[in-house]
Amino acid sequence: MDTNMRKGLLYLTPVALLIVIFFIVPVISMFHLSFLEWSPTKANTFVFFENYIDLFHDSHFLQSFGNTLLYTVIVTPIIFFMAFFFALVLRKNTGSNVVYRVIFFIPFTISFVAASYVWLWLLSDTYGILNYVLLKVGIVEKPFNFFNEQFRAMMAVSMMIGWKTQGFSMLLLLSGMAGIPNEVYESAAIDGAGRVRVFFRITLPLLRPTIVLALILSLAGSFRAFDQFYVMTHGNPLNRTMTLLMYINRVGFEYFEVGKSAAASVAFSLFLLGLSVLQLKAGRYGRD
Amino acid sequence: MKKIIIAVVLLSLTCALFANGGADKADSVELRIWNRNALMEGVVKMFNDQMEAEGKDVRAVFEVIPYDQQVPKFMAALSSNTAPDVYSLDLVQYPYFLEQDAFAPITKQYESLSFKDALPQGNIDVARKDGEVYALPYELDLSTLLVNMDILREAGYDKPPATWEEYIEIGMAVTKDTDGDGNIDQWGSHLLNSAGGNMFWGLPYLWGNGGAMIGPGEKVTYDSKATREVYQLWYDMVHTYKMAPESSIQSDFNAYNMFISGKLVMYHGGNFNLTSLRTDAPEIDYEIVPIPSNTGRHYTFGGGNLIGITSQSKDFDAAWSFIEYALSEEPLVEVYAKDYGLLPRTDLFDNKYYRELPRMMAFVDILPMAKTPISKNYNKIYDPLLYYINSSIRGELSVDEAVTQGARAIAEAMED
Asked: What is the dihedral of CA B145, B146, B149, B155, to 10 degrees?
């Protein structure tokens, strides 16, 4: 091993150590825990696949997985289309557009918990400002309840998340749009291409890698949903908005079934791993 | 020779230094105290001052544990052998941690207390196992009904409800559309919008109706006529008597805000609301009463914290000296009573701070009504119950179905 190689390895050591301590060891520990009946003070019992069998017989696990999928299906297009619309509208570098970009990006800097509480206050049917306005304008005859039905509650949370996170996707798409050479648009204009044709034949294909990246990020974020549901619905009505992470938290720290909670985390990780492979393939497709 | 002398001097100095350091280490005791209630910091400071004044080398260090973290943090600390010396933990969590041998017995110390009869026995029972006592009541939370008397008097009633019949009558009388826009903006009462809430305020309805969730020997006794009547009452409050909004079963329903803004007349609250009500709504004249009962016997959920010495404490005697001090008159009155916290010792209720707020004295009568469910599976019970209670209120399950299935869910949780 030459000196440069040794130096390089030396420089990498701190980061490698951090990754081992804070990522690899916990992941291995999670796998290990998932095969145990765990106790904080007594000897742990090796139970083979019992936690996994329990897990797949638990209707709440399957329900929370379904809820998370449903939420992802709802929220991902909301974030994407909002971001795409604003990116298209604000793509030109004018002074007012820069101000609007900042305004639309600001919600992204707020924490999920704070944003959830703000929206709870807005949407409440007993003291919410939105219902007050809807009633005064005469759009509804009685206060509209946003949280008493699964789809409505999912939509309410999704709208909040769309408002909060679209600014980041918008910036990604704007940077992607800025990367498209102007000459391409000029050539299209000379060839007589209209706006719609330019959008579908130039903007969209050249933006594909950025679109894939924006979708990957929002998809990964929505599968990890926790704070927004914990604050806004607490899994209600009737556990129909309980996400997978809420389930893992509940089983581990409320029911003290740490082994089963670890098994759910392993199953979830494997699912996300599979999803990541698909996403990577999609990303490669985007670059082709 | 010179080198030898220098070496000897250095060696002697090093030995002296280590010997001194070792002596310091052997004599000084640092106690780690955990509590979700930040008021404990004041007690810790007073304890440290007292220790210093007595010339004892004992020092307590306090860490406030957020409510949501009190179980995971303790589990992690126990598994890594870094548990605190003293922990004031939510009492419903004790059965599980006692089974895990997480606390040390303090029976002898408890028996020697001069004020032991002034401590609520129901709460102590939660921390009993195999004839030993493992923790003592420290912070108390009692479930009650807070009633806006201004609105009650306007409606022609001069006292809060005691029975279900009075509760319904008053609830219907005060529920109204005050601004004439066709929508109710003042509600008589409300339902309970969380799993914990259904236990804390919901169980006193059941106990007061002669029912119980769990009987002796952890036998599930939930599937009963008494439970059905309670479910029916809650259903009727929304659909028949229309005195409670259906949305009050949702987690976003903020009953406290509605109470302080006069939009809710009978609010399920407790002693923990008194401090904030003094600043949030000093103009409201309210009375504190037990949850209405159908049988004449009223109950309250005896919640709060129990304080105990963990089994991993390095110095049991010092840890007990902290608990003994924390339960003495000065810290309890000057820290907790000053903040209108409910004291665990009834013999200290007659203090200068409570005399300033006579409403506190209502708890003297309510405290003996306290009851606490004891089960290591408590946490597993309340989520399914929320599901069945809400299913019944939303009309998705009949009362019969909800109670039968709810009882089955409790039995399954108890079997684990």
From this structure: -50
